[in-house]
């Protein structure tokens, strides 16, 4: 560990030492490019960045392929993994207990009906102004 700096650890199941080494090389190439501002160094950085992305994507793909093969008879685990991949976490909407849900729904409906009517009126007025 460097003095005065804290290294952030990436916590994903497919992250490995090869990716860690490649990320260090990418950061090293980026620092060199930013320091020198040479086209050659920029190209080297882009190549290293693409290699890092390719390595990470392949590791992730392989991890989930193995996961699916190992759990192909367990639908619960497969659906949980799919939700995680698609960022479909717990998306329940909760209202404070003091809110009357029926009244709130009616107010929302009224708001959108008025909004549509206002837009329609504005469009009609714009049409009259053009002619």
Automatic annotation (TrEMBL):
Q: Which domain of life is it from?
A: Eukaryota
From the Swiss-Prot or TrEMBL record, give the protein name. Uncharacterized protein
Organism this protein belongs to:
Paramuricea clavata (Red gorgonian)
């Amino acid at each position: 560990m460097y003095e005065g700096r804290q290294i952030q650890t990436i916590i994903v199941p497919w992250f490995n030492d090869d990716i860690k080494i490649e990320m260090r090389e990418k950061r090293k190439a980026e620092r060199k490019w930013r320091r020198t501002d040479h086209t050659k160094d920029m190209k080297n950085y882009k190549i290293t960045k693409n290699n890092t992305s390719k390595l990470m994507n392949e590791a992730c793909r392989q991890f989930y392929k193995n996961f699916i093969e190992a759990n192909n008879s367990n639908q619960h685990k497969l659906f949980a993994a799919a939700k995680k991949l698609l960022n479909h976490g717990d998306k329940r909407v909760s209202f404070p207990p003091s809110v009357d849900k029926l009244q709130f729904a009616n107010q929302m409906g009224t708001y959108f009906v008025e909004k549509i009517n206002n837009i329609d009126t504005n469009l009609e007025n714009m049409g009259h102004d053009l002619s």
